Amino acid sequence: MCMSFEYIFLTMVIPWPSNPKYFIDVYLELLIEELQNLWHVGVLTSGSARDETFAMHAALMWIVNDLPAYGMASGWSSAGVMGCPVCMEDTRAFYLQNGRKACYFNCHRQFLPPDHP
């Protein structure tokens, strides 16, 4: 059953001219709604081992992507001074005066204990 056509892994390849880039969350919205339904409500399934019907729930355990893809999927900017998805608005990053580039100098230490060497 799991290898039948409707259960094959779904991939989405979008060619360059119509690449959604920053609007990929629009394409993923239906997937998110379906995953929420599978998590909270479930779907009735019949088990062949005991010949009974039960509600099967599903969850997305994790996704593997890089930081720019994370920014596209979540809608959070992964560039500039608020580019860290963990810190968000609480970052100590700043823009350099002459280069107008984001600088994260010494920002990584905020997660360490004060007495860390």
Characteristics:
117 residues, alpha+beta, 2 domains, two-stranded antiparallel sheet, 4 strands, elongated
The sequence of SSEs as H and E is: HEEHEE
Strand % is: 5-15%
Alpha-carbon distance between the two ends: 56 Å
Gyration radius (Cα, Å) is 21 Å
Q: What's the main sheet like?
A: 2 strands, antiparallel
> Number of helical segments?
2
Shape: elongated
How many strand units?
Answer: 4
Mean pLDDT, as a whole number?
74
Low-confidence parts: none
Percentage of residues in helical conformation: 10-25%
Give the strand order of the largest sheet, numbering strands 1, 2, ... along the chain.
1-2
Q: What is the domain total for the residues?
A: 2
InterPro entries: Transposase_21
Pfam family, one: Transposase_21
Short description:
This protein has 117 residues and is of the alpha+beta class. It holds the Pfam family Transposase_21.
SSE order and pairing:
Layout lengths: L23 H17 L2 E5 L4 E5 L10 H8 L19 E2 L6 E2 L14
Antiparallel strand pairs: 1-2, 3-4
Overview of this structure, please?
- The chain folds into two domains: 15-78, no CATH class; 84-117, no CATH class.
- The chain contains two helices and four strands; from the N terminus they run αββαββ.
- It has helices at 24-40, 67-74, and strands at 43-47, 52-56, 94-95, 102-103.
- The protein is elongated and about 70 Å long.
- The model has no long low-confidence stretch (mean pLDDT 74).
